Amino acid sequence: MSRTVRVTSVMLFAVIMYLILVEAVSPWVDLPGLGNIGFTLFFVLFSIVHCWALEGPKRTAVFFAVSAVVTYALEETGVRTGLVFGAYHYSDSLGVKLGEVPVLIPLGWFMMIYPSRMVAKAVLRNVELRTIPGVTALAALSALVMTAWDMVMDPGMSTVGQNWVWENGGVYFGVPPHNYVGWLLTTFVVYWLVGWLWRGEERKSSVARSFAALPVIVYAFFTLRYVATNRFPALQVVAVFSMGVPALVSLLQIYMNRSAAAEGTGSAAGHRVSAAEEKLSA
After folding, report:
1. Do the Cβ atoms of 1 and 9 come closer than 8 Å?
2. By the 8 A CB rule, do 170 and 82 touch?
3. Model confidence over 22-70: pLDDT tens digits?
4. Is the pLDDT of residue 201 over 80?
5. CA–CA separation, 69 and 194 (whole Å)
6. pTM value?
7. Distance between CA atoms of 20 and 32, rounded to whole angstroms?
8. What is the separation of C-alpha 109 from the centre of its chain, rounded to a whole number of angstroms?
9. β-pair partners for 97
């Protein structure tokens, strides 16, 4: 089963990378894509399956459930009251709605929440993340990493794409700053709750660091996509610093940090060495 899950995750990774490429080259080459709905469904499947491969089905179910419940509740509250993100409403372009919020939206949150957490986790690799301070640090950095993503994504999806409409506009490319306070709040709550529920012994998964790094690579590739082309050219510069910095630091931690390399392999050889050492010490 674990091998099947990993292979499925790699296949979904390849699809996601292609779909990001479709968007990146769209001003020059018209490649077949899947649109917003198809892209979101494949991306959320990748996030779920990859999380399953690393954390197992129970922890993945907890992560997805917390994310779906919290994000839907705050989105529904936000649309009805304007208190969470500012005054906005969803158009009909994202499909069927549950209340005022498209069903696709909680899925869209998780598809971004998972890779953003993996970026932050790589940056904080040498921090003990099972304590309350560690859980809080990871939640705070993950929320910043994901909100940085929205700083580049939201203007194109709303102001230009009209997938949702800011009723009073906003000073940041048509988006109100209130929105980003809401993103920080929403994502911090999700990450902290998941970290607290996961705070027991860390699950050890025997996967190569190259596999564990796939969500981080997706985040980095999104950065390149936004730098390559953007409906607001100024956001190409924003993308370099808001997304590019955490993407670069996390990749350096994964591939150049020696302790990260040692723990990231998770190979059977490593387990055999440990077993041999135990026998010698006995």
Report:
1. no
2. no
3. 999 988 999 999 988 999 999 999 999 999 999 999 999 999 999 999 9
4. no
5. 12
6. 0.89
7. 11
8. 8
9. 102
